[in-house]
Amino acid sequence: MTTPTRPWRGVHVAAALPFNDDLSVDYAGFAEHVRFLAAGGCDGVVPNGSLGEYQTLTPEERARVVETAVQAAPAGFGVMPGVAAYGALEARRWAEQAAAAGATSVLLLPPNAYRAGREAVVGHYREVAKAGLPIVAYNNPIDTKVDLTPGLLAELFHEGLIVAVKEFSGDVRRAYEIAEQAPGLDLLVGADDVLLELGVAGAVGWIAGYPNAFPESTSALYRLVTSGDAADIAEALPMYRDLHPLLRWDSRTEFVQSIKLSMDVAGRKGGACRPPRLPLPSEQADRIAADTEAVLAKGYK
Asked: Which residues of this protein are catalytic (predicted)?
């Protein structure tokens, strides 16, 4: 769970962002969702992540989303805004905005406008570190084409630029190499469908998608897989199997629409996405809805 000294630990939900019918941001609905996640046992929230569709927001909307999350968060509930931007100076400004709003840490992609080299990546993190908030690095080589390898993460960590990494490479073997090269760097699960594998490998947090729809059950699952107890792992495995047909959507291109649809089926407000994301094809939507109904029928919530 999150602690005052390590507020990036535990289950931080990459929060979906609700829109009104005219696709304006539903700030009241977002504040209610933050409170719902806290009541459901989650430890924090990540506003302005990809699941929050930050790329489609105006600067004013993006800033207000962070402020709304901080204001809605109960005491002890972490707020880790995504501060990704094409330029390091802009990313630093977003980190400064997060600090001024009262956030507890930030999530930072490497440069993603081009395939940046090592020196550019290190310089990027040095610039954003000037804002003063703890930085969780986000390794997503699939989308950014920049791979934060264990060696590069170790360099960033040993220079004091990052405190943790959201690992989204899909290669669960990296957990052990990261621990060897950067002991003390916190490993956070970065994709829902490798929760168990990275949990048993030593992860101390999860930046999560599907808790948007099922916060209580997924938070309980996280605590089981990270406890280090064999009996807990045995209890977790059937839960993981039940949830995996949904969890794997977090690693697919349509993850935003998929999670929002599951939220709708579960009685939450997922709703529409802003362009360029389109509604799911009917075959996909029917499958996700059926899988969500199956999970609900088994009592997950």
From this structure: 138 (proton donor/acceptor), 166 (schiff-base intermediate with substrate)
Residue 188: predicted pLDDT:
98
> How does pLDDT run across 210-242, given as a tens digit for each residue?
999 999 999 999 999 999 999 999 999 999 999
**Alpha carbon distance 185, 136 (integer Å):** 10
Q: Give me the residues paired with residue 218 across strands.
A: none
Within its chain, how far is the Cα of 273 from the centroid? 18
Best CA proximity match to 42, nearest among 253, 211, 156: 211
State residue 2's pLDDT score.
65
The span from the first CA to the last CA of the chain, in angstroms, equals 20
SS3 153: helix
Q: Give the integer Cα–Cα distance in Å for 25 and 64.
A: 10
Instruction: List the binding residues.
Output: 207
Binding site per annotation, positions for pyruvate: 207
In the block, residue with structure tokens 């998929």: 258
Tokens 């990540």 sit on residue: 46
Angle at which helices 27-39 and 59-72 cross, to 10°: 40
Residue 292 has pLDDT above 90, yes or no: yes
Q: What is the DSSP letter of 183?
A: T
Active-site positions read: 138, 166
